[in-house]
Structure formats: C-alpha cells, structure tokens
C-alpha cells in the first residue's frame, strides 16, 4: 500500500517568515496530492491540492510543488501570520483511498 | 447546509463495551469515510463507502463495523472497545463517488476514551 512520510513534525517560525513542509510517498500510481489544515478542536480542511500532471500550484500565500520522479511534494507558506498556526497534513491518493502523512505542527510567533 | 455532523463529541467507554459513533452529511455526497487520528500518526482510514449499500475496509478496520443504508448516514460501530481504540474519530464525505481525488469535508470529530 501507499506510505506517506511528512517532515518536520514541528516547525516554529517568526511572523513574516516562510515555512516549508515536505512529504514523500511510495506508490508511483498516486496522482492527487492534497494538503489539509487542522485548527485546534476542528476537523481538517483542504487548503490546496495538486495533480500529477502539474508541477506547481499557487494560491495567494500558499504554494505546492510536486516532483513525481523523486516522489516528493512540498507546501510553501510565505509571509506567515499567527492565524497560520495549525497542524498541516499532506496526503496521497491512489483512486479510492487517501493516505495521510503524520502531520506538522506549525507555530507562528508574533 | 450543516455539512458533516458527528455525535457524540466526547465519549468514555469501559473495556468491552460497545457503541456507535454517528455521522451524517446533507451534501448528497456519495463517498463517506471514517478516520482515526492518533498523535504523530496522522489520519488513518478505518472504513469507507462509495455509495449506499457499499462499504469497504481501509488501513485499520479491525474492531470496527460500518453500514451504509442511506446516502446521508454512515455510522461506525465499536464491537468490544479496547484501550487501543482511544483516539479522535473523524467522519468525512466527498462528491467523487468511488474516487477520492475530490475535496474531503470533515466533521468536527468524536474524542473517545476507553478505560
């Protein structure tokens, strides 16, 4: 089955700095890679996703890059703000099942 | 729309007890799923359903049963609770039928403790 590894598990940045979270996956058949944000006490919420026919996707301050050859993808958050503090999960999809990474707790210090 | 709702929010069980976690969605989504969330392990898929009457196992199905008699509801049953089932449980739904390359909408979660 699919295995998704996510690093780092915790990340602390100063407000205004950039944050990068990296994930690797094992199944070359995976073709959809979403990122979810989970705020304290809530369920995860989709923030951005990328499909295997695209190398990069951007939405305001967040961007995702995908390297299918190396089987890794990354989330980039620029100009971080305190409200970006949350747990972020990457995931990989093989068609009928999502496999999630272990999560990254991002703390943005004001 | 209420989205995905889960009840109860919190539950404490004794080892060996059984219970049902309720999940409902009002978005007419075909795909529904149950995940458990444990520290450092992300979200792991327990069971999923691609439509009424159809269910299948995920990564960690042992100790759990599901059924899908309607599009809206997808209850998760713990047959004989064990301390290893202490976790936060999330229900999710999406539009994609048998496919999961669509946005998953998560409920607020049920925090379960088994003593």
What does this structure look like?
The complex is a heterodimer of chains A (110) and B (115). With 110 residues, chain A is mainly β. Chain A is 0% helix and 57% strand. Chain A has strands at residues 4-7, 10-14, 19-25, 32-38, 45-51, 56-59, 62-67, 72-77, 86-93, 98-100, 104-109. In chain A, the strands form 2 sheets. In chain A, strands 2, 4, 5, 9, 10 and 11 form a 6-stranded mixed sheet that branches. A 5-stranded antiparallel sheet of chain A has the order 1-3-8-7-6, with no helix packed on it. With 115 residues, chain B is mostly beta strands. Chain B contains no helices and 11 strands. In chain B, the strands form 2 sheets. In chain B, strands 2, 4, 5, 6, 9, 10 and 11 form a 7-stranded mixed sheet that branches. Chain B starts with a strand and ends with a strand. The mean pLDDT of chain B is 95. Classes of the chains: A mainly beta (110), B mainly beta (115). The A-B interface holds A 1, 4, 6, 9, 31-32, 34, 36, 41-46, 49, 51, 89, 93, 95-103 and B 4, 35, 40-45, 48, 50, 56, 58-59, 90, 92, 98-101, 103-104, 106-109.
Kindly state the mean pLDDT of chain B as a whole number?
95
Termini distance of chain B? 36 Å
Quick one: overall form of chain B? globular
Q: Main beta sheet of chain B: strand number and arrangement?
A: 7 strands, mixed
- Kindly report how far apart the N and C termini of chain A lie: 41 Å
Number of strands of chain B: 11
Q: Work out the helix count of chain B.
A: 0
The sequence of SSEs of chain B as H and E is: EEEEEEEEEEE
The biggest beta sheet of chain A reads: 6 strands, mixed
Indicate the structural class of chain B. mainly beta
Work out the helix count of chain A.
0
Quaternary state of the chains: heterodimer
CA gyration radius of chain B, whole angstroms: 13 Å
Q: Write the element-wise H/E pattern of chain A from the N-terminal end onward.
A: EEEEEEEEEEE
Poorly predicted residue ranges of chain B? none
Proportion of residues in extended strands of chain A? over 45%
Gyration radius of chain A (Cα, Å) is 13 Å
Average pLDDT across residues of chain A? 95
Strand content of chain B: over 45%
